[in-house]
Amino acid sequence: MTRLRVEVRRRQAAGWMGLWTLLVVGLLVYVGEQVEALRRGYRVQALRSEVTELENENRYLRVQMGTLSARKRLRQLAEQYGMEPVPSQHLVVLPE
Question: Residue 25 pLDDT > 80, yes or no?
Answer without folding.
Answer: yes
